[in-house]
Amino acid sequence: MKQGVAQLYGPLRCFEDEDEDDQLAFCRARGGCPLCQGERKGWFDALLDSADREWARFTAPEEYPFTAGQNGIHETTCSVVARHNPATYARPTGPTYVEALRRYAHSVDPYSGRSDFDGDQNYPRMHSMTTEEAHQWISKNTGPKGGRNYKRCARCGPAV
């Protein structure tokens, strides 16, 4: 009976119907699971690749002078941007990577894409841009109702 369950567990994606905390405990005890070793690993690695690019941009304000977040656009050196980004960032490796992957894989909602990664302050949260990219961002985020999705930071007042 156990062999039959073991053979069908992964292919039938039975893990998707289990409690997240139970899945995570099972994963840690066994040293991995179908969620961590499957498609969600690829999703997580893609998020880390994006975080690496964002950090490189954020740390080069002379090349990327503007940064956009959920609430508008700022100068990259603005204190609001610094508050929403980590003080230091390094891509996780070794056991730190494995644990971060597990936390992500067992918290992501495959339908919405939302996960614990979205609120994790260890990763860059905002998008730094060149002046040209900032103009494109403003154009894209200024809709028929004016600047509903676009506003300039009241603190730094970026001159885009």
From TrEMBL:
Organism superkingdom: Bacteria
Name the record gives this protein: Uncharacterized protein
Upper classification of the organism: Bacteria, Bacillati, Actinomycetota, Actinomycetes, Kitasatosporales
